[in-house]
TrEMBL record:
It comes from the Bacteria. Residues 1-21 form the signal peptide. The keyword Signal applies. This is DUF5723 domain-containing protein. The lineage of its organism: Bacteria, Pseudomonadati, Spirochaetota, Spirochaetia, Spirochaetales. Keywords: Signal. It comes from Treponema bryantii.
Length: 409
């Protein structure tokens, strides 16, 4: 999506807001500061970076509303001092308009969207259509909104149609959208990709299930040979699922798995799948009264890891202990710690040679944290100790500190 398209759609969005005379607005925003040593420098060079997001919903009528979300991820704020310009990645994650039609046995939600919409791997879809509490793994927490941990994005310019039944906890539908991205197989110039996806989800007492799959058809920019109206050299496919066996109030098993942009080519007999496009998270969750223990085994794409709060490497195991205590009628404090063992720049396919990946380096870290209600939002404070940096004789790289805040309004 280029800048011109974003500006045009944003203008349409705000003009529409005025035309509809929005009667109400709600939002969710957050930000996080991270203080750590620059990992690309051997000597101690402190970095201070900011991640932040804003998500808003404009309710035009009872059956028409829109979403707007954007995020920002800065470079080092200390390099030129925080009062001077700093390089940053700004991204509009979602602009959408949703119209609901109430039928006899169901509700139909028709959407026009630009950006990332109802991403698989996030519980946004389940929260929107089933009004459930969050079920995502604490390991994949992010301060980049829906741009954080996703199996694959419904990303681009498109439409969606979802049906939610009144008498059954079932929702299903589809997405058709066009995006513009690099040829992922040949690493050549950008091309337009036409995508079509299907979605199915259900929420029961002891089972939550969300599944999506689809095809992407790149349209070749050039064709050497006879004239043709449409040229398709390869077909991408993607799929992802989120499953919770049990619920938030029982011992349970949380699963996420996905494949993004695997491809079929006309001259190949098998699909081409890159380890960088595989996503797997298996997390048994144990609950005894008010004490929680989650054991996470994961293999995540590098692009996903770069956006997460508790994950530094692509392959590893994490144990999260946490509990909650009430300090007032409406205030509680959650405290816990992550203990993580991970391999550097490795994926599931590397496990066949376990001796080799151990010799290439691994990390062991401990991250105690505390979360508390503060004013009208939630304050999060954590510190990470990376033990292997002492072995590597880089003690300045062993410590990092994060402070974040989220609020709804």
């Amino acid at each position: 999506m280029n800048r011109k398209h974003i500006i045009i759609l944003a203008a349409i969005f705000y003009i529409s807001s005025a035309l509809f005379a929005a009667t109400s607005f709600s939002g969710y925003a957050g930000g996080k500061l991270n203080y750590a040593a620059n990992p690309e420098q051997e000597d101690y060079d402190p970095d201070l970076k900011l991640q932040a997001f804003f998500a808003g919903q404009f309710n035009f009528t009872q059956n028409v509303w829109s979403h707007l979300e954007f995020s920002i991820n800065t470079g080092d704020l200390l390099s030129n001092s925080i009062f001077h310009a700093t390089d940053a990645d700004f991204q509009i994650d979602e602009i959408s308009l949703i119209c609901r039609a109430n039928l006899y046995t169901s509700a139909n939600y028709f959407s026009i969207f630009m950006g990332t919409y109802d991403p698989i791997g996030s519980d946004i879809f389940l929260q929107r259509y089933f009004n459930i509490k969050p079920i995502d793994s604490k390991l994949t927490e992010s301060y980049l909104g829906i741009a954080g941990s996703i199996l694959y994005p419904h990303f681009g310019l498109g439409i969606s149609d979802i049906v939610r039944f009144y008498n059954s906890p079932i929702a299903f539908g589809g997405y058709i959208y066009v995006n513009h991205e690099k040829d992922l197989i040949n690493d050549t110039a950008d091309s337009y990709v036409l995508n079509a996806d299907l979605r199915f989800a259900t929420v029961l007492s002891y089972l939550t299930f969300d599944f999506a799959c689809g095809l992407g058809i790149p349209i070749a920019n050039e064709y050497h040979g006879e004239e043709a109206l449409l040229v398709v050299e390869k077909v991408y496919w993607h799929a992802g699922t989120t499953i919770l066996l049990g619920n938030n109030y029982t011992t349970s098993l949380f699963l996420q798995a996905g494949i993004y942009n695997a491809s079929f080519k006309a001259k190949d007999d098998s699909a081409v799948i890159s380890p960088d496009d595989l996503y797997l998270l298996v997390e048994p969750r144990f609950l005894v009264q008010n004490a929680h223990m989650n054991i996470s085994v994961y293999s995540l794409p590098k692009n996903t890891v770069n956006k997460l709060l508790f994950v530094d490497d692509t392959l590893g195991v994490d144990v999260n202990f946490y509990g909650e205590s009430s300090v007032g009628s409406s205030n509680s404090v959650s405290y816990g710690s992550h203990i993580s063992f991970s391999f550097i720049d490795k994926s599931l396919t590397d496990l066949k040679d376990i001796k080799n990946i151990l010799s290439n380096g691994y990390n062991l870290s401990v991250t105690p944290y505390v979360e508390s209600q503060f004013l009208s939002g939630q304050l999060h404070i954590q510190s990470t100790l990376r033990l292997m940096e002492f072995v590597r004789k880089r003690p300045g790289h062993a410590f990092s500190f994060d402070i974040g805040y989220r609020t709804k309004f």
